[in-house]
Amino acid sequence: MKNVLIVYYSQSGQLEEIARTVAKPLLNDADVTVTFCDIQLEKPFAFPWKKEAFFDAFPESFLQIPSKIHAPSDEVLSKKYDLVILAYQVWYLSPSIPVNSFLKSEFAKQLLENTPVITLIGCRNMWAMAQEKMKVILKDTGAKLVGNIVLVDRHINHVSVITIVEWMFSGEKKKYLGIFPKPGVSDKDIQESSKFGTIILKHLKSNSYETLQEELVVNDAVEIRPFLIEMDKKANKMFKIWSNLIIKKIDSRPKWLKGFNIYLLVAIWVISPIVYILYLFTYPLKLARIKKEKSYFKGV
Ligand SMILES: Cc1cc2nc3c(=O)[nH]c(=O)nc-3n(C[C@H](O)[C@H](O)[C@H](O)COP(=O)(O)O)c2cc1C
Q1: Residue 57 Cβ < 6 Å to ligand 1
Q2: Nearest CA to ligand 1 atom 5
Q3: What is the mean pLDDT of each run of 10 residues along the chain (300 residues)?
């Protein structure tokens, strides 16, 4: 008998749907017991988001400052797991506050120490640096990262910016104005994600994860877009400056968050298209580095 724990947090239900779809082959196997653990914050974030709350989550998300969580149920805490699947979303290029809060809680060490962990990301499209941060946090809990699966919105970056904002502020995952594509991870990608569960099951049964990531990648578990990685790295540098500045502004925080909001709009709609054009011109010079990065970010 194998025990699998699936830890997740989801506001819209998208990531929960992804986690439950990936888990299907495990749930259908008589030799596997799957336990779900939904991370609950003591002070939950409201969904849909209000604009002020959305930007207010920036400094603590980026600086990875945890909040208090409710203890997982006794059922979750009472077992020892052979494998943990950690489903997380990215907030401001970092693991989301709820997931970071779980990982920095006393419960994470108890559940994850010396245990193989597979990360399952469901986000817009910018996740690479968040996963680098995740690797550090997991190391601190004593977990062994053995796999990574990433589901993203595959539409053009700027289209997904428009549709996700509409989704987060309305709470409805639908075609904006009837002309934009549906936001988030496509229904097709979610439905097909059970194929990853089949691969995971095989490795769980043989208790060997050495070739797991290779097999996941062959089955399209991770798609790398080099320009997004470049933007992710650049934005991390700017976010570091902004977050360290804002966190110290106790009284004038709302004013500074408005400034960050304006910066973000300029960065997305003015700076990033310019950087993209420059990137295209210098692309041939970067081929060797891009190849190396692709192989690195597809790994664990
Ligand atoms: C405050 C906030 C910040 C976000 N920042 C990012 C980001 O930096 N990169 C990204 O790919 N997605 C980002 N997203 C999208 C989320 O990763 C996720 O896809 C979306 O919130 C849906 O997840 P859910 O299952 O919790 O509803 C952000 C979402 C929120 C609410």
Answers
A1: yes
A2: 91
A3: 98 98 98 98 98 98 98 97 98 98 97 98 98 98 98 97 97 94 98 98 97 98 96 97 97 97 97 94 93 97
Amino acid at 179: I
Domain annotation for the chain: domains and CATH numbers: 2-225 (3.40.50.360), 227-298 (no CATH)
Token look-up 């996740």 returns 127
In degrees, to the nearest 5, what angle opens at C-alpha 183 toward C-alphas 185 and 165?
A: 125
| Global confidence as pTM | 0.97
Express each pLDDT in 142-157 by its tens digit. 999 999 999 999 999 9
The amino acid that residue 139 corresponds to is K
Contact 77, 111 (CB under 8 A): yes
Ligand 1 binding pocket includes 127 (Cβ within 6 Å) = yes
Helix (H) or strand (E) holding 5: strand 2-8
Residue identifier of the C-alpha nearest atom 4 of ligand 1: 91
102-143 pLDDT tens trace: 999 999 999 999 999 999 999 999 999 999 999 999 999 999
Q: Give the closest residue (by CA) to ligand 1 atom 19.
A: 123
